[in-house]
């Protein structure tokens, strides 16, 4: 076993532990911080697979934007220090177990079906190549996704501004 | 040299350089402000004021660490670590010369934007875990500000990337050498100004220091911090100042290159040139800090969303059109 293998297994262990902690901790902020660890270890695993771009997107979008907005949202609405008993939910444990094991099963099956024992040798992804493919072969899905995002943006603004608009009318 | 030896040497060099630069900039700030305000203290006391940064560091190191009762201890204790890890991580892509760089990443500029966004988590968790209204307000203000100004920071750099056709920091400097002019003259002047304003806001320096705002929030998100953890926040502020100014001089001012000097000696004068340019930019930011009052919170948001972001989008559009036309 090479050093990089040991490092990978260590990372996987860390990933699993922090992933479990995300769902078991009864403190919202702690859960968010464990989610950061989960995402960061995933990013490191991507770097080990020489997919730099994916790793950095994971850090920029998920850690830098999603988690930060999540923390911001939690703090601006209710920010109790210490554990929150409401988050411990004993109902539906069986259902949750069934769903998570079936998802695990499906993923394992698909991965084994696709790769089984084939070793994929990657020379690293060139970001230039990725950009070229995105803007030539996949240009239609790319534009479609941005259109969906625009729709979500406008929807978000409409929902958020609704009350303000009503309030202004009342004041007039 | 094996990979691990090389890594060890690089880490040690960065760990030695980062606090040294922070000390240098603290000295520059203290002496600069004293000079601007005619305060005799930092200009004359203790070897003409030169031991001031060391004395400050020694003072904070020997102070007792006070942790209030109600804080969320692990989160509170680790909050400074996020901030300093993010700013020291950025040293990876600062090119002191074409070869004197920790790693010339293909995605250098993208790396800068990704890693610098991590420090927001440290600021937010510090504000929340302190169990203090001032801290929470400071943390929220900081988050709002960092989210708003990250966009113009990213968008202003996009113009440079379009013009240089590369995201590697060494590549961007080489492009400027090839072009004959630094990008601040050759088309990215507006981007440079936007970058500097956004960087000042990201560093939470006056006139964008509402998250700290002594007169309103005591010390903002690090009100409850003392001793070495306060020192870490303080040092990372100055390391961040160094890193941001170094990146700005790399992207816009030609980095380690000066005209007329022979290129084969770049390993010798390169670091000096880059650090010189960095300190010059830092001095401008220090002069701004000690000359201007603080913005109001709504003015800050208006400036980001209604002025800087549209302007940087326009800059991208114009740069892209010019790139296609010429």
Q: How many β strands of chain A by DSSP?
A: 0
User: What string gives the helices and strands of chain A in order?
Assistant: HHHHHH
CATH superfamily (homologous) name of the largest domain in chain A? NADH-ubiquinone/plastoquinone oxidoreductase chain 6, subunit NuoJ
End-to-end CA span of chain A: 74 Å
> Main sheet of chain A, how many strands, which sense, barrel?
none
CATH topology of the largest domain in chain A: Four Helix Bundle (Hemerythrin (Met), subunit A)
Spell out the helices and strands of chain B N to C. Answer: HHHHHHHHHHHHH
Number of domains of chain B: 1
How does CATH name the architecture of the largest domain in chain A? Up-down Bundle
**How big a fraction of the residues of chain B is strand?**
under 5%
Instruction: Using the CA coordinates, give the radius of gyration of chain B.
Output: 20 Å
Q: So how many helices of chain B?
A: 13
Strand-pairing-aware structural class of chain A: mainly alpha
Report the helical percentage of chain A: over 70%
What ranges of chain A have pLDDT less than 50 throughout 5 or more consecutive residues? Answer: none
User: Given the C-alpha coordinates, what overall shape of chain A results?
Assistant: globular
The global form of chain B is globular
Tell me the greatest interface: A-B, 26 and 31 residues
Summarize the helices and strands and which ones pair or pack.
The complex is a heterodimer of chains A (172) and B (326).
Chain A: H1 3-24, H2 28-48, H3 52-77, H4 93-115, H5 127-134, H6 139-171
Chain B: H1 3-37, H2 41-48, H3 52-62, H4 73-89, H5 108-116, H6 119-129, H7 133-164, H8 169-179, H9 189-202, H10 214-217, H11 227-252, H12 266-289, H13 297-325
């Amino acid at each position: 076993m090479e050093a990089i293998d040991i490092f990978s297994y260590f990372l996987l262990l860390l990933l699993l532990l922090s992933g479990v902690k995300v769902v078991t901790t009864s403190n919202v902020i702690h859960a968010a911080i464990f989610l950061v660890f989960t995402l960061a270890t995933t990013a490191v695993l991507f770097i080990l697979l020489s997919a730099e771009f994916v790793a950095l997107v994971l850090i920029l979008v998920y850690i830098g934007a999603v988690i930060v907005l999540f923390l911001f949202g939690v703090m601006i609405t209710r920010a109790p220090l210490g554990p929150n008993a409401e988050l411990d939910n004993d109902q539906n444990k069986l259902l949750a177990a069934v769903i998570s094991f079936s998802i695990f099963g499906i993923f394992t099956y698909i991965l084994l079906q696709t790769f089984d024992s084939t070793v994929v040798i990657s020379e690293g992804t060139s970001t230039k190549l990725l950009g070229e493919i995105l803007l030539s072969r996949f240009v239609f899905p790319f534009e479609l996704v941005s259109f969906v995002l625009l729709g979500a943006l406008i929807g978000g603004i409409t929902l958020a501004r609704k009350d303000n608009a009503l309030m202004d009318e009342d004041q007039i | 040299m094996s990979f691990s030896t090389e890594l060890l040497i690089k880490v040690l060099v960065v760990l030695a350089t980062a606090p040294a630069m922070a000390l240098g900039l603290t000295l520059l700030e203290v002496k600069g402000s004293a000079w601007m305000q005619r305060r005799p203290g930092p200009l004359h006391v203790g070897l003409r004021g030169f031991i001031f940064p060391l004395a400050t560091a020694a003072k904070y190191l020997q102070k007792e660490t006070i942790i209030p009762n109600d804080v969320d201890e692990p989160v509170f204790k680790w909050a400074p670590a996020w901030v300093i890890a993010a700013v020291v991580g950025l040293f990876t892509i600062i090119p002191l010369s074409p070869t004197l760089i920790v790693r010339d990443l293909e995605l250098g500029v993208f790396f800068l934007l990704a890693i610098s966004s991590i420090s927001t988590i440290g600021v937010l968790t510090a504000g929340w875990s302190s169990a203090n209204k001032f801290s929470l307000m400071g943390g929220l203000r900081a988050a709002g500000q960092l989210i708003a100004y990250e966009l113009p920071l990213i968008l202003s750099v996009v113009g440079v990337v379009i013009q240089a056709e590369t995201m590697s920091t060494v590549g961007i400097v080489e492009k400027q050498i090839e072009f004959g002019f630094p990008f601040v003259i050759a088309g990215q002047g507006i981007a440079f100004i936007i970058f500097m304003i956004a960087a000042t806001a990201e560093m939470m320096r006056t006139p964008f220091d509402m998250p700290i705002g002594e007169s309103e929030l005591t010390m903002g998100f690090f009100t409850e911090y003392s001793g070495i953890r306060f020192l870490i926040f303080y040092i990372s502020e100055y390391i961040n100042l160094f890193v941001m100014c170094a990146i700005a001089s790399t992207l816009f001012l030609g980095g380690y290159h000066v005209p007329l000097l022979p290129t084969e000696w770049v390993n010798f004068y390169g670091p000096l040139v880059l650090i010189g340019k960095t300190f010059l930019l830092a001095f401008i930011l220090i002069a701004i800090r000690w000359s201007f009052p603080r913005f109001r919170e709504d003015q800050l948001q208006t400036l980001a969303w209604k002025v800087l972001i549209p302007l940087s989008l326009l800059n991208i559009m114009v740069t892209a059109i010019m790139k296609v036309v010429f």
